[in-house]
User: What shape does this take?
Amino acid sequence: MNKQESQNLMIGSWVLAEGKPRQVHSLTTKKAGFKRGTNGQRDFFRFDQLQGIPLSEPLLKECVTYRPTGKQQDTDPAISIHCYSDTVIAVRIDGNTQYYRFRYLHEVQSFLLSTYQLQVQFDVEKCVELWKLELSK
Assistant: This one.
């Protein structure tokens, strides 16, 4: 991950560290920290050792869900996000569709949180299954 790509990292971002999906738990100016087990230990990786998780329609459809942050509203917004290529996503919230260019999941996470106050929930097990299925084709 280059310096520009690392600008979108935040606590909670999902990236690849040593080829495995991991969630960022701490950040310094040059490294990201990840929990190791339940004992509070962390693994640290320089940004150039990390990779973004590439976007795809199956990844967004099967492994990612969204929920509003903060105060609960009377009704949650109707949210759907689709990947039309490796860089174009469509965000549809309550019937209003906007198109954006992103390549990686952590970029989408940062954007949705800052723009729509939506948290991304990522199912790592489903993602790993999906990748195994794609590799077997």
User: Anything to note?
Assistant: The chain has a mean pLDDT of 88.
